[in-house]
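seq:
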Amino acid sequence: MNFSDALRRKLFKAMPLPETSFPMGAFDIASINDTITQALNSAGLNTQTGPMKNVMDTIQQSLAAAGLNPAGPAAHEEGVTIDGFAREIFTPDGRTDARTDEQIDERIDEGPARPTAPPDQATPGQFLSRSFTNHAGTRAYKLYIPSSYSAHSGDPAAVVVMLHGCTQSPDDFAAGTRMNALAEQRGFLVVYPAQSANANGSKCWNWFRTEDQDRDRGEPALIAGITREVVASHRVDERRVFVAGLSSGAAMAVILGATYPDIYAAVGAHSGLPYGAAHDMPSAFGAMKRSTGLAGMPDRSGAGAHRAAGGRGVPTIVFHGDRDHTVHAQNGAEIVEQAVRGHSDAARLKSSIRRGSAAGGRQYTHTVYADAANQPVVEQWVLHGAGHAWSGGSPQGSFTAPGGPDASVEMIRFFHSQPRAGTA
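struct:
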C-alpha cells in the first residue's frame, strides 16, 4: 500500500459518517478545504505543486469517498455512499488480508494498491455498450453475447443480469466475476447495468430509498426495463432470466426478485442486504453495520412485491463472508430467511448442511433448503474468515477474494438447476 492509499484510509476512518437525515449539502466542505489548505500553506507547504499537491488530491478523494463532495451529486442524499471501502487489503498473490485496521495502519508500506480492472478481452464474444431510458430515467449498460449465440437457430439463450457494487463499473465487475467467460462456456447472455454517478456519487445502487424498492418505480423499473429490452431484442428463453449482484448490487437484486418475480426466475446475492432492510440513509448505515432483524421489514411477498408463478417464491442463492466489516454477515442470513418464508410451502422445506474447504483453502458452510421433490430452492454459503469481496473472483477486478469457492460458478449452477418458471 502506498502513502496516498494509507492516508486515504486514515482520513476515511477519521471522518464521521453522516448519521442524521439532513442533506449532505449542510456541510460547508469548501470551508473545510480552505482550512486544510491554509494550515498547510502556513507551515510552508505548497499545496499547488509537488508532493503536497498529491496529499491534497488524496484528501479530496477521501472527502468524496465519504460522500462529502460539494461539486457532485453526493452533496445531497441521493448521492450518498452507502458501501464505502472494502476492509480487505489485496496482496500481490491475490489473497485478502484479514488483519485489523490497527495492524494495517502499522504496516502501511506493505503491498501494492488494489488493481483496477481492464475491460474483459479474454473472450471471443461481443461486449456491447448500450443505453436505456424510461419514465424513471436513463442508465447505460453493457451486454455480453457469447460467440455461440444465434438469433436464428439453436435453443433460446438464458440471461443473467449482473449488478455491480459501489465504485465499480460493468467492465470491472465482468473482469472480477469472470461471468463473461462462463457465458462463453454455457451460452447465456450477460447484462451489466451501470449505476450513474448522477444518481449516486459512488455509483452505489440506491437500495436504501423507499422510492427504489417498489415495482414500476425508480431503479427497479430501470433495471427491469433494461432486462425486458434485452429479452425482446434477442432470442432468449424468458423463463430463464436471472439477476445477481454484489453488495449494493446484491441488495438491489433482492429487491428485483421481490418486485419482479415474473421476470427473474432466481436471485443471487453476494454480501448484500434483505428486502426492506432500510428506508433512508441513517437506517441504511444501521443495517449495514449491525443487523436490525426482520421484524418490521416487508415480506418479500408483501406490499410492493409480487409472488412468482405458482406462489413458490423466487429461488435464491446467498454468499456472505462471516468477517465482512462493510455489510454485517447477519444480513446474508436474513436474505435466506426471507427467501424461505416467501416459499408457498416454507414449513415443509428440508435443510441440509455441508462444511468444506475450497481449493484455495477457504472454509465454508453450505446450507441447502429443498422442497418435497428434493429441488433446492434456497442456498446459503457462509464463507469463514472472508470479508467484503466476491468469492473465487479474479484479481483483475475490484472487491474479489480469489481463494474462496467460486461464487460465479455456483450461482450459474443454481440458476440452471431451477425448473423453468411459467408454463412449459
